[in-house]
Design goal:
about 100 residues; mainly beta; 1 helix; 8 strands; about 10% helix; about 30% strand; globular
Length: about 100
C-alpha cells in the first residue's frame, strides 16, 4: 500500500506485510488515515481489517470469522467490503441527527 502526494507524485508513506502474499486484495478493499496517524486497512478479499502505525507496526487485526458459500463461485469466502473507524464524537453526532 502506498500514499502518494498528488502535487509531486512522490511516495510519502508505504506499508508492506512480511510476505507479498500475506497482503493483497485486488478489489473490495480500502484504507483510512486515522487522527492518531495510524492507518486502518481493509484487505477485503481475505476478510482482514487491521491497523498499522506510521512506522508499519500492526497494532491490532480482525479476521472475519463468518464464511459464505456463494452460488456460481467456487469455495467459500469471508470477504469484507469496507471498514471505517468512527470516533465516539462522530457516533454521538450521528445519533442526534
Amino acid at each position: 500500500m502506498i500514499e502518494v502526494d498528488p502535487r509531486t507524485s512522490a511516495i510519502v508513506w508505504e506499508y508492506h506485510d512480511q510476505s507479498l502474499f500475506d497482503f493483497f486484495s485486488p478489489y473490495i478493499s480500502g484504507a483510512q488515515r486515522l487522527a492518531n496517524g495510524n492507518t486502518l486497512i481493509c484487505e477485503g478479499c481475505h476478510g482482514r481489517i487491521f491497523e498499522v502505525t506510521a512506522d508499519g507496526q500492526v497494532v491490532w487485526e480482525y479476521i472475519n470469522p463468518y464464511f459464505h458459500v456463494e452460488s456460481g463461485r467456487p469455495g467459500i469466502n469471508n470477504w469484507v467490503f469496507r471498514a471505517f473507524r468512527y470516533t465516539p464524537e462522530e457516533i454521538e453526532r450521528a445519533r442526534k441527527a
